[in-house]
Amino acid sequence: MKRKIRITKQFNFETAHALYGYDGLCKNVHGHSYKLDVTVIGNPINDTNHKKNGMLIDFSELKKIVKKKIVSVFDHSIILNVTSPHKDLADNLEEKGHKVVRVNYQPTCELMILDFSKIISDELPSNIKLYSLKLRETETSYSEWYAEDN
Question: Catalytic pick from 26, 109, 123, 144?
Answer without folding.
Answer: 26
